[in-house]
TrEMBL record:
<keyword id="KW-0479">Metal-binding</keyword>
<dbReference type="InterPro" id="IPR051458">
    <property type="entry name" value="Cyt/Met_Dipeptidase"/>
</dbReference>
<keyword id="KW-0378">Hydrolase</keyword>
<dbReference type="GO" id="GO:0006508">
    <property type="term" value="P:proteolysis"/>
</dbReference>
<dbReference type="GO" id="GO:0008233">
    <property type="term" value="F:peptidase activity"/>
</dbReference>
<dbReference type="Pfam" id="PF01546">
    <property type="entry name" value="Peptidase_M20"/>
</dbReference>
<protein>
    <submittedName>
        <fullName>M20/M25/M40 family metallo-hydrolase</fullName>
    </submittedName>
</protein>
<dbReference type="InterPro" id="IPR011650">
    <property type="entry name" value="Peptidase_M20_dimer"/>
</dbReference>
<dbReference type="InterPro" id="IPR002933">
    <property type="entry name" value="Peptidase_M20"/>
</dbReference>
<dbReference type="Pfam" id="PF07687">
    <property type="entry name" value="M20_dimer"/>
</dbReference>
<keyword id="KW-0645">Protease</keyword>
<feature type="domain" description="Peptidase M20 dimerisation">
    <location>
        <begin position="196"/>
        <end position="354"/>
    </location>
</feature>
<dbReference type="GO" id="GO:0046872">
    <property type="term" value="F:metal ion binding"/>
</dbReference>
<dbReference type="InterPro" id="IPR036264">
    <property type="entry name" value="Bact_exopeptidase_dim_dom"/>
</dbReference>
């Protein structure tokens, strides 16, 4: 099926495609919030119903029912050949702060060629567009490989249930190629083949002090202050030059090869364009290290939020009983999550302010980073297909972000990961007013319509 034939099919079916897309986006499938478990189940059931008319057997894997289910689907091959496993996630990030959304986050709205809704891009829009491309190929009678699908409902909170189930499901997930639809284009809008991802650990660190909130006049200068302590503790994580100060954290870091460095840097990094898009210059991280290297090949420790004491209107003169910070660490290949975690625990114990106690909780992620070969048969097929999608062809990128389950699925299934996505910075994933342009959606559709037949 040619690109022009795919475009004609899209035009003829546009109304139905967008109607289904909007239906999918209306599910408030916030997988990290137990209150939204029924919404996650309903969303997963909707996906199964969508897949069955395409020739898939589709079912939910529920476990004990306490977590968002997996969608597991399979379609037999039209002829002997490869088996492709498509991975994506139907869960979405929380929508706070709600008052910054221009339209309700779960009521899709098209403005200026972009669909605005939570999940419009990350990740519902990406894999759904790809499946619509597959649908076009099926209706056109294209020869296709065996296709397996696993969609999870906990990617945004660590992929715990899929990680638990993966080994038991290994025969049903076994494949030659692991197709991941959860990444992005490069900054210029060219398609990108992701050749590496960072791993991730996220956790909460809490400092506890007095048994109850204290009057800051009666107890100021006497009682240790957890709010001040959490600021000191967080500040201790980095050296003045921005490098990570945690002993042992950066052990075993492997620098990029010459070929990787050349491919990563040949596109350059436009600091002014970055500033125009996000509002600040890219000056975070270790000074003296190129921006692309900092973002793609070096680990990070980032503070996601700090909370403690009174935050309402006016004043309330207290020394709070506790304070906490939410943190995430991005890891690079050869960094052991277990080793990194031990280093972090030792650091927090050593730097805990006098008179306070430290607790580490809500530890999730614990997945390593990885890099992929840049010259494999599957990669070459992807390059050819992406040249049809965009005549400029594809670039290689090494993502600073994480998809925690990919390394686990690779190890369990034996499949070669192929990470191609169509997100852009302006999509504002994880933020209010997330969106996905219809041009990006159609590129993802083309990719789906072309890559499955190419892998047959």
């Amino acid at each position: 099926m040619t690109k022009s034939a795919l475009d004609a099919w899209f035009a003829a079916n546009r109304v139905a495609i967008l109607a289904d897309y909007y239906s999918l986006l209306r599910f408030p499938s916030i997988g990290g919030d137990p209150a939204h478990l029924p919404d996650c189940v309903a969303c997963a059931e909707w996906v199964c119903a969508f897949l069955r008319p395409l020739g898939f057997t589709a079912e939910l894997v529920r476990g004990d029912g306490s977590k968002p289910p997996l969608v597991l689907a399979e379609r037999p091959a039209d002829a002997s050949g490869r088996t492709v496993l498509l991975y994506g996630h139907y869960d979405v990030q929380p929508v706070d702060p709600v008052d910054l959304w221009e339209t309700p986050p779960f009521e899709p709205a098209e403005r200026d060629g972009r669909v605005h809704a939570r999940g419009a891009q990350d990740d519902k829009g990406q894999w759904f567009a790809l499946l619509q491309g597959l649908r076009a190929a099926i209706e056109n009678g294209e020869r296709l490989p065996a296709i397996r699908i696993v969609l999870e409902g906990q990617e945004e909170s660590g992929s715990g249930f899929l990680a638990e189930q993966a080994l038991d499901l290994r025969r049903r997930l076994a494949a030659d190629v692991l197709l991941v639809a959860d990444t992005g284009k490069d900054a210029s809008g060219r398609p990108a083949i992701v050749a590496g991802l960072r791993g991730v650990i996220h956790f909460t660190v809490t400092l506890r002090g007095p048994k109850y909130d204290l009057h800051s006049g009666q107890h100021g200068g006497l009682a240790p202050n957890p709010a001040q302590g959490i600021a000191e503790l967080v500040a201790s994580l980095h050296n003045p030059d921005g490098s990570i100060a945690v002993k042992g954290f950066c052990d075993n870091i492997v620098d990029p090869t010459e070929a990787e460095f050349a491919l990563a840097t040949e596109r350059g990094f436009d600091e002014n364009a970055y500033r125009d898009e996000v509002g600040v210059f890219p000056v975070g991280g270790e000074r003296g290290v190129p921006a692309i290297v900092r973002n793609s090949f070096r680990p990070t420790v980032e503070v996601n939020g700090i909370h403690g004491g009174y935050g309402g209107p006016g004043s309330k003169t207290v020394i709070p009983t506790h304070a906490f910070a939410k943190l995430s660490c991005r890891l690079v290949p050869d960094q052991s999550p277990a080793h990194v975690w031990q280093c972090l625990k030792a650091h927090f114990e050593e730097h805990c302010p006098r008179g306070l106690t430290v607790e580490l909780t809500e530890v999730t992620g614990n997945e390593p980073g990885f890099r992929l070969p840049i010259d494999s048969p599957v990669t070459r097929i992807a390059q050819d297909v992406l040249r049809e999608v965009d005549p400029r062809g594809a670039v290689f990128t090494w993502e600073g972000a994480s998809i925690p389950i990919v390394a686990r699925l690779r190890d369990v299934t034996g499949a070669a990961p192929l990470l191609v996505g169509f997100g852009m910075q302006e999509d504002r994933i994880h933020c209010p007013n997330e969106s996905f342009s219809l041009d990006q959606f159609q590129d993802a559709f083309r990719w789906g319509g072309l890559i499955f037949p190419a892998l047959a």
